[in-house]
Write a structure and sequence with these properties.
Length: 514
């Protein structure tokens, strides 16, 4: 892609995807690379600017992640954030050491507003701090441009060389004017024109797909989720009936979801494509019988999915291209991009390997964050209810049933989840909520229903507020709504006699239960 580009170099900090997203919100394209990436490779990408992220280490310790001194003399503007700022100083001859006072949380920072980085920023501004070390002495040539009560060098710059360092995290929303600072860097200092826009992305992608695919035959695994739906519609707009979508109904979908997907993408829907729905429920239940370990369940579902898909593909015959709805966070989270550890093996990444007879993979969304995929979906004219559909994991309800999966448990969680979602919608809360669903715990407990003893399962309700799904907070759902959901589930879902609300944030929890 011939885009002006900012490169984010990842030193293992927790907000690194946020940095990239904020840059893109300034209409500037941006990619994340590990600090281990070869400098030559970075140079060859001809970035308009480089951002060094935060990270958990001390830059002066042996073996800590580092970068070469040459990075700062390429003539490319560099902005260091937190660890990245300290590293810049350390590598260029400044002094970084353990701070006498650790700063953590929202902190008032006094900035020099004549700095290019702080144009149109208030003189006293609230920033998010999180550091043990601090910059004791700036490197030669640097001017100090911000300080706090406890941190004498909260920002420094060598404007003539376009080097900027800030101790705080402008990418975090708690930094009130952080987006403005990043905007000043990418649009001002780096001179990016702001050409990264969804309408042109969609139009370019359709053209590129046409060019790449030619008259070829294309196969797409459609899940009905936002990502694969947007990918499928984009492909169908580009190449119409050359596309065949295979929808594997693994019996782990939400209530009625299989039929809904068929309505939209099937022969009676608005799109011109070949659609095949495979009813594979029983195969999945058989494979999952007696399996309780989460990663094993994920693997079984992933592998069985591939097998079913493979069989369908064989019926279709040789295809030229395979479509995947991979998005950018999938790539970063799977350890293919930045430095992040693999927490869960996500089912849609690096799956579908060399089993179908195809030449190449098409991943039209691999550069996009989730909110950008949604914007692309709207650009493509996909109905809002589909575009803003709740995220749903590839392994489906399989990872929302703790422990063994059975058909009866699937029924319980489907019904409980449908009630929960319905009540959240009725209460007018659905638009502003990140993700919400019901899960079935593996806990049974004693209860009483109409004078009879019960020994039934407990449902956990989960709702999280999140910007990027990397971190999340439990949502504060009004008690009245929760109570109503509880009443309905207990009364309407056979086999459930207790309801919990999950208060855990991510970290330490994850959004899903397995
Ligand atoms: P976790 O549980 O990892 O979830 O905190 C973060 C987001 O990712 C979704 N998720 C998945 N999506 N395949 C997917 O396509 C998966 O295997 C998978 N596991 C989790 C989850 O629903 C949440 O939105």
């Amino acid at each position: 892609m011939n885009q002006e580009k900012i490169i984010v170099i990842d030193f293992g900090g927790q907000y690194n995807q946020l940095v990239a997203r904020r840059v893109r919100e300034c209409n500037v394209y941006c990619e994340i690379y590990s600090y281990r990436t070869d400098l030559e490779q970075i140079k060859s990408m001809r970035p308009k600017g480089i951002i060094l992220t935060g990270g958990p280490d001390s830059c002066y310790k042996e073996g800590a992640p580092t970068c070469s001194r040459e990075l700062f003399s390429l003539g490319i503007p560099v902005l260091g954030l937190c660890y990245g700022a300290q590293l810049m100083m350390h590598v260029l001859g400044g002094k970084v050491e353990k701070a006498p006072v650790r700063e953590y949380g929202k902190t008032e920072v006094s900035v020099n507003t004549s700095s290019p980085l702080f144009q149109n920023v208030s003189e006293k501004t609230i920033c998010w701090m999180s550091h043990f070390d601090y910059i004791a002495d700036a490197a030669k040539g640097f001017e100090i441009t911000a300080h706090t009560k406890d941190c004498p060098i909260a920002a420094a710059e060598y404007a003539a060389k376009n080097l900027y360092a800030v101790q705080f995290h402008p990418e975090v929303l708690h930094t009130m004017e952080g987006t403005r600072m990043l905007y000043n860097f990418v649009r001002g200092v780096c001179g990016c024109g702001g050409t990264w826009r969804m309408d042109s992305f969609v139009e370019n992608s359709i053209q590129e797909i046409r060019k790449k695919v030619g008259g070829g035959k294309v196969l797409c695994a459609l899940s009905g989720g936002v990502d694969s739906s947007v990918a499928a519609v984009m492909l169908s707009k580009a190449i119409g009936k050359q596309l065949t979508c295979v929808f594997v109904d693994h019996g782990l979908l939400r209530k009625n979801e299989g039929d809904e997907v068929e309505e939209v993408f099937g022969p009676n829907g608005p799109y011109e494509l070949n659609f095949i729905r495979v009813h594979a429920q029983n195969r999945f239940y058989e494979k999952l019988a007696h399996v309780t370990e989460p990663e094993e369940k994920r693997k079984i579902i992933g592998e069985e999915f591939i097998r079913v898909f493979e069989e369908e593909a064989k019926k279709i015959g040789a295809v030229d291209f395979l479509v995947q709805g991979t998005i950018y966070p999938d790539i970063v989270e799977s350890g293919l991009g930045g430095e992040s550890a693999v927490i869960k093996s996500h089912h849609n990444v690096g799956g579908l390997p060399d089993f179908v007879d195809f030449k190449e993979i098409v991943e039209p969304l691999r550069d996009l964050f989730k909110d950008e995929v949604r914007k692309a979906g709207l650009e493509l004219g996909i109905p809002e209810y589909l575009v803003f559909r709740q995220p749903f994991p590839g392994p489906g309800l399989g990872i929302r049933i703790i422990g063994e999966v059975t058909m009866d448990k699937v029924r319980m969680v489907q019904e409980a989840d449908a009630i929960y979602r319905e009540e959240i919608e009725n209460a007018g809360l659905s638009k502003n909520m990140g993700q919400y669903f019901a899960a079935l715990t593996n806990m049974r407990s004693v209860g009483v229903m109409g004078d009879e003893r019960t020994y039934d399962y407990a449902v956990a309700l989960r709702a999280v507020e999140t910007v990027d799904f990397m971190t999340a907070e439990a949502a504060e759902i009004p008690y009245e709504v929760l109570k109503k959901v509880m009443n309905r589930i207990i009364n309407e879902v056979k086999g459930v006699n207790r309801i919990f609300y999950d208060l855990t944030s991510k970290p330490p929890g994850t959004v899903e239960f397995e």
